[in-house]
């Protein structure tokens, strides 16, 4: 019996180190403008603009958190963090999702209150700030590359995308109030912003929770892994298959492989790892080869 390992001494994130510069630039831009939008929302008394301003303040913190997490994830593995720091990005995404959900709840409560008790609104200042905010958010979203394949950057991009749609809602709200005087439009369009935030929060929380709970990454099926590997020459059985991901783009697999008595262990290990890499995109796996009964089952594990 032997164990075949794949790159255990190397940091697993060496192929997935994102460039933190776009996150850093987006953080500085959003943080600077969020102050302007908060002031504009207060002076104009626009709930839609205040909702978007609150979102931008939250975005500044979320982007800063994402930036720090991305830089932390690039640190090499150590004796006490043997898988490296890649999952810091997943934790940051989870926190971002919680903040999105909390902001959506606040907007819903405030919009309900203002719809029944409308408040005055200065549409022109609100319109000016919202238009500038739209331009700022479009620049930041372009820098983030529309989310990419990294859950942390995707979470940050969702924050900014919500701001883009929030700015559009604030523009529409200011225009409606300016031309019609219908103050409830501000509350209704704030609900649109809340719905956008809630949807983004659900997607980010679902994806990050799946990783934190060691769920199988989408598209990587445990049964499929077992069937493909069991069909390889020299393999008689595949069991104790566990599939999860350090991050969504870095799936991991551990398994036991019972091999035929006459099979060459090294050759079988090479075939197993090649199949995992080429068929399922798994570049890191731990395989326990067995030429008899399973020791874990014998020990009652």
Compact description:
The protein has 301 residues and is an alpha+beta fold. The protein has helices at residues 21-44, 47-73, 88-116, 123-143, 151-180, 184-212, 222-230, 265-280, 295-298; strands spanning 2-4, 235-247, 250-259, 284-290. The protein has two domains: 21-212, Alpha-lytic protease prodomain-like, CATH 1.20.1510.10; 216-298, 2-Layer Sandwich (Alpha-Beta Plaits), CATH 3.30.70.1350.
Distance between the termini: 17 Å
Count of helical segments? 9
CATH architecture of the largest domain: Up-down Bundle
Query: How many individual domains?
Result: 2
Number of strands: 4
List the helices and strands in order: EHHHHHHHEEHEH
Name of the CATH homologous superfamily of the largest domain: Cation efflux protein transmembrane domain
The CATH topology of the largest domain is Alpha-lytic protease prodomain-like
Radius of gyration: 25 Å
Structural class, from helix and strand content?
alpha+beta
Averaged pLDDT: 82
Q: How much beta, percentage-wise? A: 5-15%
Fold and architecture overview:
The chain has nine helices and four strands, in the order βαααααααββαβα. With 301 residues, it is of the alpha+beta class. It folds into two domains: 21-212, Alpha-lytic protease prodomain-like, CATH 1.20.1510.10; 216-298, Alpha-Beta Plaits (2-Layer Sandwich). It has a four-stranded mixed β-sheet with strand order 1-4-3-2, covered by helices on one side. Strand 3 (250-259), helix 8 (265-280) and strand 4 (284-290) form a beta-alpha-beta unit. The longest helix is centred in the middle third of the chain and has 30 residues, at 151-180. It starts with a strand and ends with a helix.
């Amino acid at each position: 019996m032997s164990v075949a390992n794949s790159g255990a001494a190397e940091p697993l994130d060496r192929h997935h180190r994102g460039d933190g510069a776009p996150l850093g630039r987006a953080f500085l831009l959003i943080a600077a403008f969020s102050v302007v939008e908060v002031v504009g929302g207060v002076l104009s008394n626009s709930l839609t603009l205040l909702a978007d301003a609150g979102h931008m303040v939250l975005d500044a913190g979320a982007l800063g958190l994402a930036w720090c997490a991305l830089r932390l994830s690039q640190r090499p593995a150590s004796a006490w963090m043997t898988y490296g720091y890649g999952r810091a990005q997943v934790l940051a995404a989870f926190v971002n999702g919680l903040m999105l959900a909390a902001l959506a709840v606040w907007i819903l409560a405030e919009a309900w209150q203002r719809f029944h008790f409308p408040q005055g609104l200065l549409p022109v200042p609100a319109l000016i700030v919202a238009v500038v905010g739209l331009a700022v958010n479009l620049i930041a979203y372009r820098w983030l590359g529309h989310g990419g394949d990294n859950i942390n950057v995707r979470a940050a991009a969702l924050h900014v995308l919500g701001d883009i749609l929030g700015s559009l809602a604030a523009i529409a709200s200011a225009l409606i109030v300016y031309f019609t005087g219908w103050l409830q439009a501000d509350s209704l369009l704030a609900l649109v912003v809340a719905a956008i935030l809630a949807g983004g929060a659900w997607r980010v929380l679902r994806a990050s929770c799946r990783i934190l709970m060691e769920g199988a990454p989408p598209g990587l099926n445990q049964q499929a892994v077992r069937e493909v590997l069991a069909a390889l020459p020299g393999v008689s059985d595949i069991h104790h298959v566990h599939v999860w991901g350090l991050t969504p783009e870095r799936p991991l697999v551990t398994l036991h492989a019972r091999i035929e008595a006459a099979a060459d262990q090294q050759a079988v290990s090479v075939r197993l790892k090649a199949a995992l890499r080429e068929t399922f995109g798994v570049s890191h796996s731990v395989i326990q080869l067995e030429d008899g009964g399973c020791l874990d089952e014998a020990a009652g594990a």
